[in-house]
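User: Hey, my collaborator sent me this sequence without any context and asked if I could get a structure. I don't really work with proteins. Can you help?
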Amino acid sequence: MRDSSARRLTTAAVAAAAGLAVLAPTAAQALDSTAARPTAISRSIASAAPVGSVASAAAKQPAKLTVASYITYLKQQKTPEARKTLAAFRSLSKTRQAKFVGYLQNRKVYWQLVDHSWGKIGQSVHHVETAFNKDVKIVSDATSKRAKDKNRTVTLTHTVTEYIYGIPVTSEQVHLSYRAPADRITAVVSAKAKVTNVNAAITIKGDTRSAIGAEGSSASAATFWIATPNVKSFGKAERSEHRVSGRPEGTWEAQLHSY
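Assistant: No problem. I've predicted the 3D structure and written it out in structure-token form, which is a compact way to encode the shape of the chain:
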């Protein structure tokens, strides 16, 4: 199921092989938080630059992203994702290339990277939405499964990806694994987050935390993403919360939203 009040749903299909193979470690920043005890709250915080260096970097930012500077950026990344994006970007018409880089540095387009899904353990959810306009789509995928081990370990993964003209640009993912052997959750096994980003207008980092509710009533993993602009045209930094959670009665929920 899904909360669709914020945006219009579309039934357009996206090829899984092309669209969702965007999480290769070579291009992703991964954050890991693992709880050693049921009551522990653990976190992995991405390193932050000193305030002075951030201000200095902002002063040196170019005014905007251009087609030429974006091509240069992709060439410099030297990752499989960047190479695929470069080939796909070059295949676009000049008009679409100009619109593409315009979308990259438009904060209102990045705002569309949101989702709210839920279901029962063992159920997977896939959605495609037209966001901002017909050129931009948001694809969300949530998977859940329970192992047959003595701890009845549950694994939840939630991924939200922005596509422009069918090209994956930014993908944010949160993963949670926990033990629920009876009618309560006893431990978080792992909590991880991963971002793959070929948007030259922003740099995305995150802070991942995991926790167990009172008396084992729930388990959750949350990542707080910060998108820092690399060009002045994007404006100020954007923050969002990406959370997945499960309950011992066998339900899960996943949400990505700005704040």
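In plain terms: Confidence is low (pLDDT under 50) at residues 2-30, 32-54. You can pass these tokens on to your collaborator as they are.
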